[in-house]
Amino acid sequence: MKAFVSGFEHKTGVHCGSTAMSDLLRFYGHDYSEGLSFGLGAALAFYYVRGSKLYPTRQVMGRTLTLEPDLCRHHGIPHAWHTEEDSARAWEAVREQVALGKPVLLQTDLSKLDYYNTRTPFTLHRVLLVGYDDATETAYLADTDFPGLQEVSYDSLRRARDSKIPPFPTQNAWMILDAKNPTVPLPEAMRAAIIENARRMLKGDRGYGGIENMFEWADELPFWPDQTDDWVWCVRFAYQVIERRGTGGGFFRRLYAQFLQEVETQIPAAADAHLADEMSDIARNWRDLGMALKQISEEQDPAALESVAPAARKLALREQHFYGHALKAVGSGI
């Protein structure tokens, strides 16, 4: 059997999940930018995770794990997020949706998708399944990094969907939605998303690391060479996730600033508070920090980490101020 979703349009973008959501929303008639999709998902975050089973053993991440369902919740879009232990049942479930003419969002481990040709795991890579061919056992994916559709074998997709690599195994996760008629108007959805994102960052609500994690990271950075043998790779990886690994530059903060520019056309108080300008400046600071980490990883000078720790701490203070400012501008305080 063979099936394709008709009327689907894919645009390449940054590697953060908002591309997939923009594609999905466009399929249902809403031409939303990546920045708007990212911001409506209250997706800005800061996680600092460490552990001997991680690769590398120290990692930072700048977006939430729940962009897609949070966007749907804020905008009043019916949706369902599923996980399934059994790979065969997980495949049949998403295959059925495609046969009904619906694209399905999948969580995958990028390193298991053979067209990437990389061994570095990334288990939060979201793609859209838009077709399949049982005769050749080929699935067709819309992937943010590539124009057109990518062909991948059933076996490769199965491994990508069932990756056990920590800290976030893929769990054969998928999401389906119906975005034809959002029940929450866009300005209201924008306001709710900004408030929730700010509260998460300030309080670490529902397991979101936030500002507290940023201070912990800044305090520990100088001690990485004493704590772990792979400290150079940890520093290099931090640079990559800040500036290169599909963040849109500036650790997703540039993407969030684009969202805030759109917010300012809908919510005058956000424009009066110059939130987009403030976040753009924060994004530039993140870029500078990322480039400093890149240089340290190339020179492999452990003492140099002492010099970037104050910049990391200053960024934590800047973001702490920004989220408080955003709350006062668009909603009540926390």
What is the element layout, followed by pairings?
Blueprint: E1 2-4, H1 18-27, H2 34-40, E2 44-50, E3 58-63, H3 67-75, E4 79-82, H4 87-99, E5 104-108, E6 125-133, E7 138-142, E8 150-153, H5 154-161, E9 174-177, H6 186-203, H7 210-220, H8 224-227, H9 231-243, H10 253-263, H11 268-272, H12 275-299, H13 305-330
Antiparallel strand pairs: 1-6, 2-3, 4-9, 5-6, 5-9, 6-7, 7-8
List unreliable stretches of 5+ residues. none
Could you spell the SSE succession in H and E letters? EHHEEHEHEEEEHEHHHHHHHH
Please summarize the sheet with the most strands. 7 strands, antiparallel
Q: How many structural domains does the protein architecture include?
A: 2
Based on CA atoms alone, the radius of gyration comes out at 20 Å
Q: Helicity range of the residues?
A: 40-55%
Strand content is: 5-15%
Number of helices: 13
Distance linking N and C termini: 54 Å
Shape: globular
Number of strands: 9
Structural class: alpha+beta
Average residue-wise pLDDT = 92
Describe this structure as you would to a colleague.
The chain is α+β, with helices and mostly antiparallel strands and 334 residues long. The protein is 48% helix and 14% strand. The longest helix is centred in the C-terminal third of the chain and has 26 residues, at 305-330. The termini are far apart.
